[in-house]
UniProtKB/TrEMBL annotation:
<feature type="domain" description="GGDEF">
    <location>
        <begin position="58"/>
        <end position="193"/>
    </location>
</feature>
<dbReference type="GO" id="GO:1902201">
    <property type="term" value="P:negative regulation of bacterial-type flagellum-dependent cell motility"/>
</dbReference>
<dbReference type="InterPro" id="IPR050469">
    <property type="entry name" value="Diguanylate_Cyclase"/>
</dbReference>
<dbReference type="GO" id="GO:0005886">
    <property type="term" value="C:plasma membrane"/>
</dbReference>
<protein>
    <submittedName>
        <fullName>Diguanylate cyclase response regulator</fullName>
    </submittedName>
</protein>
<dbReference type="InterPro" id="IPR029787">
    <property type="entry name" value="Nucleotide_cyclase"/>
</dbReference>
<dbReference type="GO" id="GO:0043709">
    <property type="term" value="P:cell adhesion involved in single-species biofilm formation"/>
</dbReference>
<dbReference type="GO" id="GO:0052621">
    <property type="term" value="F:diguanylate cyclase activity"/>
</dbReference>
<dbReference type="InterPro" id="IPR000160">
    <property type="entry name" value="GGDEF_dom"/>
</dbReference>
<dbReference type="InterPro" id="IPR043128">
    <property type="entry name" value="Rev_trsase/Diguanyl_cyclase"/>
</dbReference>
<dbReference type="Pfam" id="PF00990">
    <property type="entry name" value="GGDEF"/>
</dbReference>
Length: 196
């Protein structure tokens, strides 16, 4: 009887330890506010997908998104409302990507999406779907509608491109995002494709 109780106690402790490790692993890889991947994890995913795309000689698209005038949301409605907006934007992004795509919080109000095996045309369609899902329906916070828009930049690693690095791909998407901001915000812009 005593050995049975000790054995059960050991099993319970082992299960508790496993659960704690699982929580710790989740927290190390996810942004706790939005539930999507954090900066380090999304870059790790991008690195792996870029390597796979080279090995399989396939496309890889990324999308960099940045909420327009987000500081104004925080200043007008408060940081709790701003956090609610970020969480809702992340949810809408997840709902508008394919099962094998990944989305992460790149920083502040910036997001990075990794789209393996995705053509430029498909990436632009996905980016526009995300843009519409965010801009066409206000985020509700305590019964207050908060209108939000996003600017998105799309960049590609095309078939045959063996030299574009993760940093260069992110830089291309960021430049396209900057172009979207310069051209009036609430829009999608495409980066010039790197030469193979």
């Amino acid at each position: 009887e005593v050995r049975l109780r000790v054995g059960k106690r050991i099993l319970d402790l082992q299960q508790s330890l496993n659960e704690a490790l699982e929580v710790q692993r989740y927290q190390a890889q996810h942004d706790l506010l939005t539930g999507i991947f954090n900066h380090a994890k999304i870059l790790n995913i991008l690195e792996k997908e870029l390597y796979r795309a080279r090995r399989q000689n396939s496309n890889l698209a990324i999308i960099m998104g940045d909420l327009d005038h987000f500081k104004k949301v925080n200043d007008t409605y408060g940081h709790v409302a701003g956090d609610a907006v970020l969480a809702e934007v992340a949810r809408r992004m997840k709902n508008n990507i394919r099962l094998y795509d990944s989305v992460g919080r790149y920083g502040g109000e910036e997001f990075l999406l990794v789209l393996p095996g995705c053509s430029t045309e498909e990436a632009i369609i996905i980016a526009n779907r995300i843009l519409e899902s965010i801009s066409q329906e206000a985020v509700m916070f305590n019964s207050t509608p908060i209108a939000v828009t996003i600017s998105l930049g799309v960049a590609m690693k095309a078939v045959g491109d063996e030299k574009t690095t993760t940093a260069e791909l992110v830089q291309l998407a960021d430049a396209a995002l900057y172009k979207a901001k310069q051209n009036g915000r609430n829009r999608v812009e495409q980066a010039a494709e790197p030469s193979p």
